[in-house]
């Protein structure tokens, strides 16, 4: 066996844990769920092939429209807000001294490692319309805050605000990107008389556009799959399910209900594939648009 | 993440289905009678003395075999995963209303043979509890607790507003609305006391029954959500909430209650009255024994007591490896002697804490007789002693919803309808008409396979 061939086999050997994991835990189940999406399947009784019936049903299901609209609304608000706030914080951190930057980096990242279940519970406490801290603070400036957790139109905005709690990862990515922007570009812009806003627009944004694009994709996908914190806050216990508000019915929560509450595994699989197609479509659009806005140094 | 979990679960199910096709699963149903085994279970923990005492008694009944307690309440996801992977537990403890769904899919065993073999006396159980565990004339679970719903009245709030707790009743709806308005209190523009909480959506079946209606037919096959009596009950209860500030404010304030703590809504005068399960007497007795409380039957518009009962049951999964041992175990878990021993243990624990013991309300009539005759003693708190007697009298008027082949979907349909009305999205008749279609479709589909 030649050295090259030996090295090739060694490479596959090292890659094999990932390959096996991918095939067994991701590719296999994906194929299985695609097959199941054409069946009536409840785990407990035999599977019946129903053709495209599940897909026809989901097009007519008003709850699919509601949950999809809720999820899109949340994504459209959450992603730009997270990116803007994270960029602002990262720029502040980039200006901070080395020791204090380390301290604040840790502080900003801590909420990210907080379990999402805890975030859901925290949301109910902080945003309670009658006794919550948020309305208490709004009251200090004369604002009578809404019932964030029980008034339909305010539930999603409340969840969006709460989602800003865990933007630590995005801050770290932006900070790393900002620290890689060559100083001489700023110096040249300053010598040309560029204002801080002009430097931000013409130097900072293009130079970190790769990081911005990456976080746009990742945050969009993760928003479309939002589950844990919203489920905990609104559907996690039997009591919460009783008072479940359609305004908090996100797509993956509805999918989960269909699968594990109503035992409609076939229908839930069709729902999963619809979400997969939506995510692929949105990501393709974003990638296409990125060609016009993202700057790569190698170009 | 959860999509991945779901995919993993269905994949496991496929593997099992293929294995089953090769005769690899389900062929080991025979049980050797004398072998020492450890029964597995789902949905039951031994977190308190009532559970622990009966658990020990049931284990003694199958010695040298034994059962191993699980943690947490019943989880459909956990149960389905276990069934799909071919390793279901030997025992499962779930709400009685869920039994029908699993029974119609043949995921749990009919208990006909078990009852016959172990000579289990079904006459010891309260009929309403047995009804809830019976689908199509076949029993699928042995009933445990018997959760009664009664009216709990905060005497302090009533005294402040000049109302008489003894005269308070849910029979006269206009008078109830007037009392609720009077009991409701605001402070600084915010709600500081709810006058009367009708506890909808969850208690809608009881309000419908109080109005002479029912959400479902007696055989559990026909949804009756558009029954004018049901629509009227929903219309009234929603109006009752709107008269006290509207749903959003009402719910936010209610969510802020320290429900199980010393600063609960009775101790802090945040609630005038509400219908509630009897277990809450025990909570109040432990957390705030000095609270001034009156308990009365929940009454229908005809003035008669209405007591909607629910509870859990023990069932045996269809592919349990040890169904005979499991049967013997659940027999002991629910029999008279075990309940009495559990009540004695609870009474001793309460005495050690200096808290009143308000009894156990079980699905076992004979156990209740002995418990309330020999174990429950006057607590020294007149309100709690009277409350216990009221619940005892009310439970004779207990009714239960029949077992349904699509229990979860049926419940979700009418509860979603109530929530849409509370959120102001639909009117009661419109919401219930939509729910009727969904519920009937689910029942028809589930029953077509039975």
What is the largest interface, and how many residues per chain?
A-B, 53 and 49 residues
Instruction: From the 3D structure, determine the CATH topology of the largest domain in chain B.
Output: D-Maltodextrin-Binding Protein, domain 2
Low-confidence stretches of chain A: none
CATH architecture title of chain A: Orthogonal Bundle
How many H/I helices of chain B? 18
Oligomer: heterodimer
Molecular structure report:
The complex is a heterodimer of chains A (299) and B (450). Chain A has one domain (62-293): Orthogonal Bundle (MetI-like fold), CATH 1.10.3720.10. In chain A, helix 5 crosses helix 12 (228-234), helix 8 packs antiparallel against helix 11 and helix 14 runs antiparallel to helix 15. By secondary structure, chain A is mainly α. Chain A has 15 helices and two strands. Chain A starts with a helix and ends in a 6-residue tail after the last helix. The longest helix of chain A has 34 residues, at 3-36. With 450 residues, chain B is of the alpha/beta class. Chain B folds into two domains: 39-148 and 310-392, Periplasmic binding protein-like II (D-Maltodextrin-Binding Protein, domain 2, 3-Layer(aba) Sandwich); 150-308 and 405-448, 3-Layer(aba) Sandwich (D-Maltodextrin-Binding Protein, domain 2). A five-stranded mixed β-sheet of chain B has the order 9-10-11-8-12. In chain B, strands 2-4-14-7 form a four-stranded mixed β-sheet. In chain B, strands 1-3 form a two-stranded parallel ribbon. In chain B, a hairpin with a 2-residue loop joins strand 5 (134-135) and strand 6. The interface between A and B is large, with 53 and 49 residues.
């Amino acid at each position: 066996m030649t050295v090259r061939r030996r090295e090739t086999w060694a490479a596959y050997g090292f890659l094999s844990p990932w390959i096996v994991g991918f095939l067994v835990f991701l590719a296999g189940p994906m194929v299985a769920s695609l097959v199941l999406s054409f069946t009536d399947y409840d785990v407990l009784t035999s599977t019946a092939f129903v053709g495209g019936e599940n897909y026809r049903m989901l097009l007519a299901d008003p709850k699919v429209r509601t949950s999809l609209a809720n999820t899109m609304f949340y994504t459209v608000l959450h992603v730009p807000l997270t990116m803007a706030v994270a960029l602002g914080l990262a720029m502040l951190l980039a200006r901070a001294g080395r020791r204090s930057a380390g301290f604040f980096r840790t502080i900003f990242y801590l909420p990210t490692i907080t379990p999402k279940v805890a975030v859901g519970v925290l949301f109910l406490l902080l945003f309670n319309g009658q006794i919550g801290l948020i309305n208490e603070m709004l009251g200090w400036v004369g604002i009578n805050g809404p019932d964030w957790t029980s008034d339909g139109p305010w539930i999603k905005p409340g969840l969006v605000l709460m989602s800003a709690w865990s933007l630590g990862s995005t801050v770290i990515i932006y900070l790393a990107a900002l620290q890689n922007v060559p100083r001489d570009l700023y110096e040249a812009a300053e010598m040309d008389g560029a204002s801080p806003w002009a430097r931000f627009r013409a130097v900072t944004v293009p130079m970190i556009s790769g990081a911005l694009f990456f976080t746009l994709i990742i945050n969009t996908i993760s928003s479309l799959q939002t589950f844990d914190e919203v489920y905990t806050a609104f559907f996690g216990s039997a009591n919460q399910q009783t008072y479940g508000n359609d305004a908090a019915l996100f797509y993956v929560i509805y999918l989960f209900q269909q699968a594990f509450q109503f035992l409609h595994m076939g229908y839930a699989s069709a729902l999963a594939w619809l979400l997969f197609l939506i995510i692929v479509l949105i990501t393709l659009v974003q990638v296409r648009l990125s060609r016009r806005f993202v700057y790569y140094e190698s170009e | 993440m959860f999509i991945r979990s779901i995919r993993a679960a269905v994949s496991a199910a496929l593997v099992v289905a293929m294995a089953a096709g090769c005769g690899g699963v389900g062929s080991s149903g025979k049980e050797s009678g004398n072998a020492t085994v450890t029964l597995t279970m789902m949905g039951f923990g031994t977190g308190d003395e009532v559970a622990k005492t009966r658990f020990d008694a049931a284990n003694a009944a199958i010695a040298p075999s034994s059962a191993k307690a699980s943690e947490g309440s019943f989880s459909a996801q956990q149960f389905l995963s276990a069934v799909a992977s071919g390793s279901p537990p030997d025992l499962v403890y779930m709400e009685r209303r869920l039994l029908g769904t699993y029974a119609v899919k043949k995921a749990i065993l009919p208990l006909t043979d078990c009852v016959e073999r172990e000579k289990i006396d079904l006459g010891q159980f309260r009929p309403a509890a047995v009804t809830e565990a019976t689908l199509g004339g076949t029993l699928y679970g042995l009933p445990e607790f018997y959760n009664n719903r009664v009216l709990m009245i905060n005497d302090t709030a009533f005294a402040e507003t000049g109302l008489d707790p003894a005269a308070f009743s849910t029979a006269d709806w206009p008078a109830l609305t007037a009392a609720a308005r009077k009991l409701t209190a605001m402070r600084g523009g915010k709600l500081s006391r709810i006058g009367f909480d009708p506890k909808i959506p969850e208690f809608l079946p009881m309000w419908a029954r109080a109005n002479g209606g029912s959400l479902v037919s007696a055989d559990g096959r026909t949804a009756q959500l558009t029954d004018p009596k049901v629509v009227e009950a929903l219309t009234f209860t929603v109006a009752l909430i709107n008269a006290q500030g509207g749903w959003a404010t009402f719910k936010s304030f209610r969510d802020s209650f320290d429900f199980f703590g010393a600063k609960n809504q009775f101790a802090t005068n945040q609630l005038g009255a509400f219908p509630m399960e009897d277990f809450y007497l025990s909570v109040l007795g432990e957390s705030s024994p000095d609270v001034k409380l009156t308990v009365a039957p929940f009454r229908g518009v005809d003035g008669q007591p209405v007591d909607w009962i629910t509870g859990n049951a023990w069932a045996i999964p269809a592919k349990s490896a040890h169904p005979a041992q499991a049967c013997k175990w659940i027999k002991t878990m629910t029999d008279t002697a075990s309940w009495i021993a559990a009540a004695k243990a609870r009474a001793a624990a309460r005495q050690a804490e200096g808290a009143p013991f308000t009894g156990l309300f079980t699905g076992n009539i004979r156990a209740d007789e002995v418990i309330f005759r020999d174990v429950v003693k006057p607590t020294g708190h007149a309100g709690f002693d009277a409350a216990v007697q009221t619940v005892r009298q009310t439970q004779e008027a207990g009714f239960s919803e029949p077992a349904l082949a699509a229990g979860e979907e049926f419940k979700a349909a009418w509860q979603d309808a109530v929530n849409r009305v509370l959120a102001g999205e639909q009117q009661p008749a419109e919401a219930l008409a939509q729910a009727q279609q969904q519920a009937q479709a689910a029942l028809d589909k589930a029953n077509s396979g039975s």
